[in-house]
Amino acid sequence: MFIINIPLERGLSDFIICSKTKFLMTAVFEYLVRVQPHHTDYAGIVWHGNYVAWMEAARVEYLRSHGLNFADWVAAGVDLPVVDLSLRYRQSLTMGMDAVVKAWPEPRQGVRLVWQYDIQNQATGASCVLGTVTLAPVDRQTRRVLRRLPEAFQRDLDRLYAASP
Fold this sequence. Notes:
Blueprint: E1 2-7, E2 12-18, E3 23-34, H1 48-65, H2 70-75, E4 78-79, E5 82-89, E6 98-105, E7 113-121, E8 127-135, E9 138-139, H3 151-163
């Protein structure tokens, strides 16, 4: 897969994601992070679990930037637990560095939501961590996977995906 970055406005860029089977243009959200001492291990290198927390923060802020509030979905009885997570570490980030978490949703496949991430060293643009997260909607009371999304949740997702060319 290759990624070509064309800057747009603050917080978003346009990316062309190319693979052997598809070409997709999608809006990518940029979430900035400064590596603080509490993000690192004793050697000053970012502890691996922080990348997952940054990815979640970027995903929630992406939704917020599109007028969607994750907390509203939870209050309406829909939760989105992570059902699959993969990370590919390419380069370390260390204390004091600035990073940008680039996040974008993949095209929808049923009720599951798949998000892609590229955590980059902001100074060099080098990819440090590539990640994929798959979320599945569940009913908060029964904890069962929803095969059909509640109407309001479906409308929110339709609006989100319509905003991403």
